[in-house]
Amino acid sequence: MGYWDMRKKYVLLRDCSEMDVLAEDILNNYGLPLVVKNTNINSFIKERLEQFNVERVLIYEFESDIFCNDISERNEIYEQYKTNIDCLKDLLNKLSSGKEIEKKMITNISDSIYSWQDDQEKVISMLTKVKSADVYTYTHCLNTAFYSMLIAKWLRLSQEDIKKAIQSALLHDVGKIKIDTEILNKKGSLTDEEYNEIKNHSLYGYEILKTMGNIDIDVMNGVLHHHERIDGSGYPFGIKGNKINIFSKIVSIADVYDAMISDRVYKRRTSPFEVFKLFLTTGIGAFDPSILDAFINNISVYYTGSNVWLNNEKTGEIVFIPPYDVSNPIIHVESEYIDLSLQSDMKIVCII
């Protein structure tokens, strides 16, 4: 059961425990968010809300057996993830060898991903832990599909369109099966010729799906245009704005996000908060702002409570993510709270 399905109740703030989760945004007198919905309450957040004279909060009402079910469901999603990796390997291997595949192979995986749409916390927790460089080709496609599902859900798209977003993401890199693996896994700089070949993968993917004859045109265009950018700086055609369909716009954000927070054969992963900074600076003109806002504002809250490794070689726990500055969380390190917005020389290396 996800938060979407849970009953809610008002309780006194002083009676909240660290197991409680906010069921609505808490606003200040000017209507600006102090703490956002789906945040886990902790002592730092309670103290912050008390400073603003907040006395009662709306929380989700967990059932008595929720924690036993929670462990079972976390194991279930991970087992489904591993099964989907195997199915995706089979699908791509068949395509790579020129064999025909049934559309059911694609829909089975996408339906499995869709089934977890209401369990956002479990999905994000699982994706944070699955970072294997050894099978990156497969995990990246699957992870991008999960993130695209979440974005489509947060945008309140229809069931049909959420599934189109999932399938577009699942297949977004299918064209790479036509590119030499030595180029794909090269650790050094690419030549112009090699880079241009990699840029062809979205075209190759579109052509592969077109020959199948049973893939939705929206999904095919989602694959074709997932490297296009709304300012026209993308490829393969340099189209911009509304000429790029919503599924490409969703996948483009999910694709970049997962690539940057994942280990690769040629680079170490970065933290989600560094990616948020990228999106909110250089990414502002490249990605659809309404989709980007929906993604960052919703996913960031789920990192509250995460343990992190800092560049000063210390570990800490994220206790608060300011809604107005999500790339600079408050971190509890040893006996002090560190506000990253005030520490320009300190940053999160990774979530651990």
Automatic annotation (TrEMBL):
<dbReference type="InterPro" id="IPR037522">
    <property type="entry name" value="HD_GYP_dom"/>
</dbReference>
<dbReference type="Pfam" id="PF13487">
    <property type="entry name" value="HD_5"/>
</dbReference>
<dbReference type="GO" id="GO:0016740">
    <property type="term" value="F:transferase activity"/>
</dbReference>
<protein>
    <submittedName>
        <fullName>Putative nucleotidyltransferase with HDIG domain</fullName>
    </submittedName>
</protein>
<feature type="domain" description="HD-GYP">
    <location>
        <begin position="115"/>
        <end position="311"/>
    </location>
</feature>
<dbReference type="InterPro" id="IPR006675">
    <property type="entry name" value="HDIG_dom"/>
</dbReference>
<dbReference type="InterPro" id="IPR003607">
    <property type="entry name" value="HD/PDEase_dom"/>
</dbReference>
<keyword id="KW-0808">Transferase</keyword>
